[in-house]
TrEMBL record:
CDD domains: FN3. InterPro entries: FN3_dom, FN3_sf, Hematopoietin_rcpt_Gp130_CS, Ig-like_dom_sf, Ig-like_fold, IgC2-like_lig-bd, Type1_Cytokine_Rcpt_Type2. It comes from Eurystomus gularis. Residues 237-335, 437-532, 533-629 form the Fibronectin type-III domain. Belongs to the type I cytokine receptor family. Type 2 subfamily. It is a single-pass type I membrane protein. The chain crosses the membrane at residues 634-653. This is CSF3R factor.
Amino acid sequence: MAGHGAGTPFLLQLSLLLLLRPGGTLGCALVAVGSPVVPLGSAITASCTIQHKLCRILEQGKVQITWMLDNKPMAGSQHRGLGGTEVSNLTLPHFNRTQAKLWCCVEWNGTKQRVGMAEIWAGYPPAKPFNLSCILNLTDYGLTCQWEQGADSHLLTSVELKCAGDPRALSSHRCRSRTQAVTGCTPQGGRSHCTVPRRLLQLYRQMEIWVSVTNALGTAESEHLHIDPMDVAKLDPPALQSIQSIPFQTDCVTLAWEVARSNAHMELQCELRYRAPEDSAWALVTGIVGQAGTAQCCGFLFGTQYQFQMRCRRSSAQGYWSEWSLGRSYTTHEKAPTGKLDAWWSTRPAGTGGQLEVQLRWKAPRRQEANGRVLGYRVTLSLRRRGRDPPTVCNTTHTQCNFSMPVGTRRVYLSAYNAAGESAATEVVLLERKGQPLAGLRAVPGGEHSLWVHWEAPPTPPAAYIVEWQRVSSEPGHCSACWQMEQDGATTTALIHGGIEPFQRYNISVYPLYKDAIGVPIHTAAYSKQKAPSYAPKLHLKSISKSDAKLCWDPVPVEVQNGFITNYTIFWANSTAEVSSAAVDPSRNSFVIQALKPSTLYKVHIMASTAAGSTNGTSLTLVTMVLDDIELQFLFFTLGLIFVLLIFLLICFQKNGRVKQQFWPSVPDPANSSLGKWVPAELQEVRPGLRLP
């Protein structure tokens, strides 16, 4: 009986669950809401009705109805309804969830049981789609439209692309037939594009196209497009057939092309673009009209490889351009180089008499003057006369040449040549460097790989300037100089960037060029970017005393200074951690630490600094002396003097009897005294030969 009584509450609960479970067959609870879909933040009302006739197990006691929004308890108002029902009403003034389950529960036997449920969704009316655009693919004549969705409505939404005959053109025309007013396509998987097939389109007629978005709270439509599908056709690209340079020695080319077969029945408007490998942007040629044929374009550089591409669209519409055609390469014909070469030189007397050693440097011609690939350069001492070639002192593929010439010669002639011919000779006058120098010169960083050079013009305006720069190296002759010519004599600035690297020092020189002389150069040094030195110098102990220590070091190599050394700082500390320091001018390579304590151990290190940072060197340990050198010399002198005096006194004592008598008097020998020879009388009477016992 005891076991049977204990199992009764469990059986009652189980029977209640089976009878009142949501969706149960008895259906004794009915949950109703004002609307299952509401605007986000609006109020909702709900009611739960319990029918006692269908839930007989609840007749034994009063039914207590409660509510839960998902897992959160909510308070409702309960009353008895018609037909013996129990009704609970619930009002939520602000429903701020996009989706929730509202449960109706009953209290029975101390437990809360869910007996009914209603699901509620909340969101916004659909937002208006925007940026609707369409494109017709001529391969299958499908019209693909795309758009951008508005804000998320948080509700189940259906999207449809719709099309119809334009009512402005036809009063009753439909997309394909008069029996179907509106058709279109539905995007799949939440995408924002879809394709209307050819069978639903009317080509060469105006159509109305729009996007319709619908959810439980309303419908929104995009702006309506009124287009002929052919006006938005994307054509297949044309094909370039051939490119030729005609006539010879001009900068023009003729191109032949043909259109794709799908575009053969259309009037087209085409564009051509081209560029050389060195160009960052394309040059565009517009206004090419026709289905196929040829076009002539001018303004090309000689001996230059170009890449050509072409595209087309319908000439009667503002539709889409085709993709660019496959590229076609073509190299224009060469002609002899033109223009003058910028040259710079240096001279010095040769070892043999009457000769001058010349180093001539020049800049390669610009691309628009090279007219092809330059094969080499020629330097002569005179011009060509009457078809006779002058003597050549240099024929090279490089942009510099070393040669000797008579001291009196002041002119040389420089020319460039390619496969098509040779340029006119540039006269180079080797002027003396005796003109006025600049009034001032400075350089500042222009970037990690460039420097701005600023100068003050001399009193006499020059015709041009030469800016020369060279990386500073600890190895003489390791780096060659770079240079550039500034043709404008009125300029006072120049940007140099050839071979400039960060953290490296460069010596910069500027030469004014006058008509009859070259100005004396002035110089400066600069870094494009600085940082802390790669390492600090190593300290060496040169001398030490009880209060001073002289240190020396080797300068940091210029390649690893990484900037201008602003100062060295010497730090020293004893065993009690008393730290002292002193700044040293970067031009010095030694320093004397003063006021040290005698017989004390010190740790010393050096720090090298630039404007961008500092680097510490390794530590040096030293111990000061007990005495100074002078004190040691005095001590050794005193000890030596004492030793000498002692030796001197010893010698004097040995040589001088009077002195010896005073310190060591003479003592008589007892054996020679009268007492030593005295014999008692009894012994004198003993006979000779008789031995005493």
